[in-house]
Design brief:
binds S-adenosylmethionine; alpha/beta; Rossmann fold
């Protein structure tokens, strides 16, 4: 290898180490499918996964909320928060770290107790679970956040419709229980057909923005809608 090629290889290697913090290549599949193998390799090389483990966050997703909050400053001491799609508990942890007065979460999956939060095991679309959530909340909320993601089918259009349906339900819920000036954050996916939801958001909130936090993988079509300044009177007119 001539000197220029050697330098270029070194530069590439240095960059890779800088980007990921560590590089792990799994040689043995140990009965894993190719996609499982790919997922595991990605997890092992993901700097957010490593940082989450080091800092004690339940999920790498915790960094998405941290980064959104660094941009929009919605997590404030004393607020009441609803965390939809809470498992394994990363977003609830972040809300509690920011001294939320109350955090009520819900997820289809069971969640190990998160100190300071109350997480219901159940389907958000089931009215009985919603009533339970409302009872626990005991009044209105200042922030409704939804990181809910239905299981993907692999069919992009179907997956898109499913997440939009879920997010629309989360928005309807938020419109009913948010305090004046409250905030709604939800995961959505790029891909059109969100107009109805966007119109509703714009009618109900002063500011509606979309953001892709750096912790959201570039290859994922996921992004977040952040709607601030809920206009309660608008709804009651
Ligand atoms: C990306 S994870 C949430 C990660 C979480 N924000 C964290 O930081 O730990 C999405 C969650 O949405 C939940 N979910 C999907 N559909 C749901 C529904 N209808 N009701 C409640 N939870 C749901 C899934 O079970 C999954 O745990």
């Amino acid at each position: 290898m001539n000197k220029e090629n050697a330098n270029s290889t070194l530069r590439k290697k240095k960059k890779l180490r800088f980007d990921t913090g560590l590089t792990v290549n799994l040689k043995k599949t140990k009965g894993r499918s190719i996609s499982q193998q790919r997922w595991l390799t990605r997890q092992l090389n993901d700097p957010y996964v490593k940082a989450a483990q080091q800092q004690g966050w339940r999920s790498r997703a915790a960094f998405k909320l941290i980064e959104l909050n660094n941009k929009f400053y919605f997590l404030k001491p004393g607020i009441k928060v609803v965390d939809l799609g809470a498992a394994p508990g990363g977003w609830s942890q972040v809300a509690i770290y920011h001294k939320a007065a109350k955090v009520i979460g819900m997820d289809l999956l069971p969640v190990e107790p998160v100190k300071g939060a109350d997480i219901i095991h159940g389907d958000f679309t089931d009215s009985q679970n919603l009533n339970l959530l409302l009872n626990k909340l005991g009044g209105k909320a200042d922030l409704v956040m939804s990181d809910m993601a239905p299981n993907t089918t692999g069919h992009a259009a179907t997956d898109h419709i499913r997440i939009i349906n879920l997010t629309e339900q989360a928005l309807d819920f938020a419109i009913n229980i948010l305090n004046e000036d409250g905030v709604f954050i939800a995961k959505v996916f790029q891909g059109g057909s969100e107009k109805t939801m966007l119109d509703k958001l714009k009618q109900s909130f002063k500011i509606v923005k979309h953001a892709k936090p750096p912790a959201s993988r570039k290859e994922s079509r996921e992004l977040y809608v952040v709607a601030t300044g809920f206009k309660r009177n608008q709804k009651e007119k």
